[in-house]
């Protein structure tokens, strides 16, 4: 990930509804969510949700799959991984033990 891609991702996440959408999709995991269900869960109108999902999609933070007449959205974990890697590049001056608490905090239990 380069600086412009990182800025695009941060810009997308800097709006409260989009941040809520992304966090909801992270929580949904591999099953993702239908666009309408996302809007319903967050009490956001369909046209507003569509615009927010488009911003997140263009920023590389979500991906989608068409399923007949509906679209299922997923958190793009590769995009998030790229953003986190960008932030932590050259972390702690090469002292990996200093980064371990951060990595432990964001690692999935499992």
Write up what this structure looks like:
With 110 residues, this protein is of the alpha+beta class. Helices cover 62% and strands 13% of the residues. The protein has a three-stranded antiparallel β-sheet with strand order 1-3-2. α1 (3-13) packs antiparallel against α4, α2 packs across α4 and α3 packs across α4. The longest helix has 13 residues, at 16-28. The chain starts with a helix and ends with a helix. The mean pLDDT is 90.
Attribute tags:
13% strand; 3 strands; Arc Repressor Mutant, subunit A; 110 residues
* Largest beta-sheet characterization: 3 strands, antiparallel
| Counted beta strands | 3
Distance between the termini: 27 Å
Strand content: 5-15%
Assembly level: single chain
Spell out the CATH superfamily.
Winged helix-like DNA-binding domain superfamily/Winged helix DNA-binding domain
Please identify, by name, the CATH architecture. Answer: Orthogonal Bundle
Rg from Cα:
15 Å
Order of H and E elements: HHEHHEEHH
Shape: elongated
Structural class by sheet pairing and helices: alpha+beta
